Amino acid sequence: MIRIALTGDIFLSRQHWTFKRGILDQINSGSDILSKNLIEFISRADYFIGNLETPVLDIIPEDPIEFCFASSREILEKFLINIPHPILSIANNHILDHGVEGYQQTLKILNDLGVTVIGSKTLLSHDPFVYIEDPSGTTIALSAFCNFETGLIENELIWPFDRDFISMSIENAKKRSQVAVVYLHWGREFLSVPSSEQVKAMMEFNESGADIIVGHHPHVRHAVYNTGKSVFASSLGNFIFDQYESRATRMGNLLLVDYDNQKLGTEIGDIYIPRKLPVKIVGIRRILETHEPNIRMVPDSIHRFFASVMTQIHRILLRIDLILHLFPDFKEKLRCMLHWSLNGDRSRLT
Questions:
Q1: What value does the mean pLDDT take over residues 20-25?
Q2: Could you say which of 8, 32, 115, 268 has the lowest number of CB atoms within 10 Å?
Q3: Looking at the DSSP assignment, which residues form a beta bridge with residue 184?
Q4: Rounded CA gap, 71 and 55, in Å?
Q5: Average pLDDT over residues 237-263
Q6: What percent of the chain lies above the pLDDT cut of 90?
Q7: Measured distance CA(280)–CA(270) in Å, rounded
Q8: CA neighbours within 13 Å on the CB side: how many for 249?
Q9: pLDDT band at 28 (very low <50, low <70, confident <90, very high)
Q10: DSSP assignment of 3-20, as one string?
């Protein structure tokens, strides 16, 4: 039996608005990244797949620019200590935040640390799949793609999302492997269901031979489906991220997928990202098999509209979150005002 752990976005950087309370700052101050029970859960896997949502540089810029991320070799090395056979995707919309030089530094550091990289077009110029020969005799094929409007440079460095090409690549990969994993950076942020176009694409990839189809980027988790022969998860949410503004962005899924004699079993660890590290696992669930994955979805046009609404809502929540943490006295006064309005007790307002 082979056991593969899959999760979503891994952010080992800081965002400019976190004011020294971000992920990178907490790690630098000595905080553990993962809790003991989460490490124990991950240790049950033979392989770990995640989306590295940040370039890894030799020197991190002192003052971060908005939505321009960076981590260091030391931080990544600390994260990898408890990760079995790490496989990280760089096919995402932030890997080129520091240009081609930052991209090349990232590849070198990942190689130095023994990480298997997926999604890189420079490492895999013809076939987007990486093949791993497991000691059991099973061959695993893994690929990653980024579904964003990218320019010429990006399209030359990471594998873009092209449905026809991905389907063809899956068919070729299955000639050389028993398990094919397709790992997708796609979807719209903050929506908890996929669009009809995403579901259509997942079905196409499954028909081409993909066994495990997993997505990330929305920063919230979607439902997971297991037919016994295929696993579908259009978004696993965040694994490590300092998006503290809502509970939805602070929860993620960590899948443990067992492959045993052409049969897939799935277990989910519920990931919780507190304001102060470490990241925790707060529940474990087993996904029951369904003959047909009746995936909840929303028509693409409606999906696009609600995505713009949810983005604005999260921007508002972010600003409220910042105010409450920059001005703790205001937060306490607000709590007292709510208490007074509900209970008529004004003593706490003085």
A1: 78
A2: 32
A3: 145, 215
A4: 6
A5: 93
A6: 66
A7: 8
A8: 20
A9: confident
A10: EEEEEEEE--S--GGGTT
Residue 187 φ/ψ region, left for φ over 0, alpha for ψ in the -120 to 50 degree band, beta for the rest: left
Longest C-alpha distance within the chain, in Å? 74
pLDDT at 336: 62
Task: Write down how long the chain is.
Answer: 350
Quote the CA–CA distance of 88 and 6 in Å, as a whole number: 10
Average of per-residue pLDDT values in the chain = 88
User: Which has the closest alpha carbon to 214: 7, 44, 42, 11?
Assistant: 7
> Helix or strand or coil: residue 206?
helix
Q: Domain spanning 2-297: which superfamily?
A: Metallo-dependent phosphatases (3.60.21.10)
Who has greater pLDDT, 126 or 232? 232
* Alpha-carbon span 184 to 150, nearest angstrom: 15
Supply 262's token pair: 């052409």
**What is the distance between the terminal CA atoms of the chain, rounded to a whole angstrom?**
64
In the chain, alpha helices (H)? 23-28, 36-42, 73-80, 99-112, 152-157, 163-174, 196-208, 300-326, 328-343
Domain spans, the chain: 2-297, 307-349
Give the model's pLDDT for residue 291.
77
Contact partners, residue 205, CB within 8 Å, separation at least 6: 166, 167, 170, 182, 213
| CA–CA dist 219, 51 (Å, integer) | 12
Q: What is the pLDDT of residues 37-71, one digit of tens each?
A: 999 999 999 999 999 999 999 988 776 566 678 99
Poorest-confidence range of 147-156, 188-197, 225-234? 147-156
Residue 50: partners with Cβ closer than 8 Å, 6 or more residues away: 6, 7, 8, 9, 10, 86, 87, 88, 89, 239
